[in-house]
Write a sequence for this structure.
């Protein structure tokens, strides 16, 4: 296990990297040092050969966003505020672009930068007691273009407008109905079962293929770093991959495939 700043812990179980935010006394609110720690954990994951990354919080709090105790210091220094904003956006973008399939496991508060992290993940599981909000308008601030784009892709323009302009707090059922949540679970036990089931389902698929699919979706989602040529290259490369050779052989042999780095 690797621990960053005594708040962000990362460990690997088979081909799954688990990154946990553990600051229960602050409802997992993050100051600059914690965002830097999360970025370091993502950098470590990015160079590994793991195929899945799970991001979680503590019971009752995924992430409550910015640490208000740091706000006074940031207000006193425009450069510090700018540096913090750049760090947050860079970390979320790294999570969005990381090669692994990413899962946000949400129980409780998922607000501001916390929801930004969840939106940067590929899949989101949540308990019924979870709550979701993006509140920059209540602070006189504007949500970044990158964050706003992720929100629009998840819920559509009309609902993104409502969330951003009003700062409305959504209950879990509404969040699931709007598309913020992939799977809604009754409680923490059901959340753990859903997480395990999702890992089993992903474990039966090709990690190489999922990475290529993410490239194609990034292009379709408007990521300027991924052009049409990169998306086409990801599509074409799959036909020459070891996993396709195994998948085709397994299909013809009427047996389950054993992909590179399979979870099982």
């Amino acid at each position: 296990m690797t621990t960053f700043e005594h708040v962000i812990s990362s460990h690997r179980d088979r081909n799954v990297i688990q990154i946990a935010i553990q600051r229960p006394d602050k409802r997992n609110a993050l100051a600059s040092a914690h965002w830097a720690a999360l970025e370091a954990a993502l950098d470590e994951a990015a160079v590994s050969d793991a195929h899945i990354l799970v991001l979680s919080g503590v019971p009752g709090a995924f992430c409550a966003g910015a640490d208000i105790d740091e706000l006074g210091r940031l207000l006193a220094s425009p450069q510090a505020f700018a540096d913090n904003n750049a760090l947050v956006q860079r970390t979320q973008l790294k999570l969005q672009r990381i090669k692994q399939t990413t899962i946000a496991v949400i129980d409780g508060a998922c607000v501001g930068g916390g929801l930004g992290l969840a939106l940067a993940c590929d899949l989101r599981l949540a308990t019924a007691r979870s709550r979701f909000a993006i509140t920059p308008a209540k602070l006189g601030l504007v949500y970044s273009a990158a964050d706003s784009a992720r929100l629009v892709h998840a819920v559509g323009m009309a609902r993104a407008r409502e969330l951003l302009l009003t700062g409305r707090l959504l209950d879990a059922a509404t969040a699931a109905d709007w598309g913020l949540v992939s799977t809604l679970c009754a409680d923490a036990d059901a959340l753990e079962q859903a997480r395990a089931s999702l890992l089993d389902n992903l474990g039966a698929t090709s990690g190489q293929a999922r990475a290529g699919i993410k490239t194609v979706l990034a292009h379709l989602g408007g990521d300027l770093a991924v052009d049409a040529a990169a998306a086409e290259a990801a599509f074409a490369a799959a036909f020459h991959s070891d996993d396709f050779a195994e998948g085709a052989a397994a299909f013809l042999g009427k047996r389950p495939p054993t992909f590179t780095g399979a979870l099982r």
Remarks:
- The domain at 2-202 is CATH 3.90.226.10 (2-enoyl-CoA Hydratase; Chain A, domain 1).
